[in-house]
Amino acid sequence: MKSIHDQSYKLLISLLREERRKQKLTQAELAERIDSDQTYVSKVETMERRIDVIELRTFCKALDIDLLNFLKDFEDRLKDSLEEKR
Predict the structure, then answer these.
(1) Are 63 and 20 in contact (CB under 8 A)?
(2) Pick among 3.30.470.30, 1.10.260.40, 2.60.120.1440, 3.30.70.240: CATH of 3-85
(3) What is the C-alpha to C-alpha distance for residues 2 and 55, in angstroms, rounded to an integer?
(4) N or C: which terminus of the chain carries fewer CB neighbours within 10 A?
(5) How far apart, in whole angstroms, are the C-alpha atoms of residue 56 and residue 67?
(6) Where are the alpha helices (DSSP H) in 1-86?
(7) pLDDT above 90 as % of the chain
(8) Tens of pLDDT, residues 54-64
């Protein structure tokens, strides 16, 4: 199974989208902050395009969130979701 279809990757992207929406930013506004276009953000959020750690860092910086805190939240939520499945 490719990691882009993995539940943990879906959670990661869901958290990024959640943070963007919490800040009431459109995909176009976020794209402008990362010097890209709306299509790129859309493809990331719909998981048509996979991102690496450098791109994740860019998203976090654009959203003014700490990468390590974001990853800790991701790990906590991932752990919770895995425990719920047991």
Answers:
(1) yes
(2) 1.10.260.40
(3) 19
(4) C
(5) 8
(6) 7-22, 27-33, 38-45, 53-62, 67-85
(7) 84
(8) 999 999 999 99
